[in-house]
Amino acid sequence: MALKNINPTTTNSWKELTNHFNYVKDINIKDLSKELNRKEDFSIEFEDLLVDFSKNRITKKTIAILVELAKEVGLKEAIESQFNGEVINVTEGRAVMHTALRSTSDTPVLVEGKNIKPQIQSALRKIKSFSNKVISGKWKGYTGKSITDIVNIGIGGSDLGPDMIVESLQFYKNQLTTHFVSNVDGDHVSEIIKKLNPETTLFVIVSKTFTTQETITNAETLKNWFLKSATIFDIPKHFVAVSTNLEAVDNFGIDKNNVFPMWDWVGGRFSLWSAVGLSISLSVGFDHYKALLEGAEEMDLHFRNEDFDKNIPVILALISVWYNNFYKAETEAVLPYSQYLKKLPDYLQQAVMESNGKGVDRNGNKVDYQTGTIVWGSTGTNMQHAFMQLVHQGTKLIPADFIGYKESLYGLTDHHKKLMSNFYGQIEALAFGKTKEEVHLELKFSGDEDKINQLLPFKVFEGNRPSNTILFNKLTPRSLGKLVALYEHKIYTQGILWNIFSYDQFGVELGKELAKKLLKAQ
Ligand code: F6P
Has residue 13 been placed in a domain? Predict the structure, then answer.
């Protein structure tokens, strides 16, 4: 069944939301927090995850109408269409099957009439056996030494996902050192080369198309560097590829046994669950990689089966639409309180902005409402000493996701207590602020009574700044899989609500074309 094609602003729920917004727009989170059971009513617990969305400018009625909107635009059917392998990436004529990559069920998933599950299982077996050989040292380089370094060569979805996951799962890493080369800037690859020994380095070239300028340029440079010490007959021991373009891979000189598959029905920015995640499996071992996939599958099942009012990705998507389209907020901050997650905002920028940065609806008409939000962020507590001033006291409304963990990985509970008191402190400061009266009293008691008139306006925090609390028990491969899948489903939900196609990315093409022309003209 094709995706419905409904301009959300023409729905009854949108009209109701507009009226409701005029009525509630000045509500204050502080007042809302006094409601009995506010926290329980606006929280969802799912296994090791608690999402508290009580500190938002929403009432039960807001959620009820937003949920109606999701129903009116056919979200349920759209979710089923995605999971069932229908061609929902209409402009590219493709199914969108990253959920099948992590599905452990035996139920066949048909793409163009063919069950894709066996190919997925066979790719996973290949990833497992290859990772085991390299990690155990059985895979030898051209001088008989074991591999010590992995270089992932890719860009966009063929880089950001694996890089972010390897960084986030550092705690679970083995002895291999993993590097990521992405930028066509030759200084990037040169800095990596400085750290490598050709005898013990394995290059993983990741490119769905195998035509991407940056990746092919970097791969050629690294191959030439390698061939200064080795011969072309040594290439099979040191170069593997992940791609759909077997001919180009072959032309590059890669042994056909060293090719890991990619498929048209997996989008680049949703591909870390496929062999694009090979460097993840090499870095943390196949079992941890598998646990990452299992966590994502748990979120898939939750997203597919749970009612919308208890459905984490759906609720977060709806709240985000509420701010984007009614409060006219332009950006959203993602603020993980874990240094491991420092690359998550970069990863989400591609996932969210390449997916939903669209100005044309599913009819091909220019939209007259706002779509994709701008996503940005950094880790706490560092960002408290950087940009949080603007979020607390600036003129812009910036809804934020605070991501935290109940436990740290190394212990050091003193650090973790401090980290988490900052986490909750920021959430509270944003939501409740500090009134004139409170500042007045504070200045009075601190002996600065004479400065009250001068300082008071600068020390007031208006508060009423919204946030979601996303709290996991512990950073594990499984919980990370869940977190990433949560955002993937939020993206799709918003694409459905805004009546846009989330899975194409024509907006990246023109710049590429012009760069090619300019290069030729040089
Ligand atoms: O330029 C955008 C893009 O097409 C992304 O969507 C993709 O993740 C990236 O380029 C890399 O593409 P490939 O894997 O084909 O090299």
Answer: no
pLDDT attached to residue 19? 98
Domain count, the chain: 2
The neighbouring-strand residues paired with 403 are 336, 470
Pocket test for ligand 1, best of 89, 94, 96, 158 (most atoms within 8 A of CB): 158
Q: What is the pLDDT of residue 449?
A: 80
The residue assigned the tokens 């401090």 is 418
Q: Which residues of the chain fall short of a pLDDT of 70?
A: 1
Assess whether 302 carries a catalytic annotation: no
pLDDT at residue 262, as a whole number? 95
pLDDT of residue 448: 75
- 393 and 336 both lie in a single domain: yes
Catalytic residue among 354, 482, 489, 490: 354
Q: In what order do the strands lie in the sheet with 467-472?
A: 43-46, 49-52, 467-472, 400-405, 331-336, 374-377
354 is annotated as an active-site residue: yes
519 inside domain = no
DSSP string spanning 145-204? PBP-EEEEE--GGGTHHHHHHHHHTGGG--S-EEEEE--S-HHHHHHHHTT--GGGEEEE
Backbone angles phi and psi of 159, in degrees to 5:
-135, -50
The answer to whether the beta carbons of residues 331 and 518 sit under 8 Å apart is no
Q: Evaluate: CB of 268 within 6 angstroms of ligand 1.
A: yes
pLDDT at res. 399: 98
Characterise 264 by phi-psi region: left (phi > 0), alpha (psi -120 to 50), beta (else): alpha
Determine, yes or no, domain membership for 195: yes
Q: Please check whether residues 388 and 477 belong to one and the same domain.
A: yes
Q: How far apart are CA 65 and CA 17, in angstroms?
A: 7
pTM: 0.97
Whether residues 160 and 239 fall in one domain = yes
**239 with 355, same domain?**
no
pLDDT (0 to 100) of residue 1:
67
Q: Which domain holds residue 158?
A: 110-288
CA-CA distance, 186 to 164, in Å (whole number)?
22
